[in-house]
Amino acid sequence: MATYAYAWHIYFNFSGYTNLVTGIALLLGFVVPRNFNAPYLAINLADFWRRWHISLSTFIRDYVYIPLGEIVRALFDKM
């Protein structure tokens, strides 16, 4: 029971901070993308990761995964 309560605590904690930042951003005229999409309704781990912390996943994909993939591809093209 405590495990489930802790999982919900983490979700509501992150969600609350995200909502606070989203509200401040809207007051300042910025549009912030959604950060969660019902992660605990996911059917597997990959779906959970896509739904949990969407902005972090997008950042990692755009600024880490894709650039590293291009570097590795360029190295193999030279061989």
From TrEMBL:
It is a multi-pass membrane protein. The keyword ATP-binding does not apply. It is found in: Membrane. It holds the Pfam family MBOAT. GO terms for cellular component: membrane. The chain crosses the membrane at residues 6-32. The keyword Transmembrane applies. Its main location: membrane. Keywords: Membrane, Transmembrane, Transmembrane helix. This is MBOAT family protein.
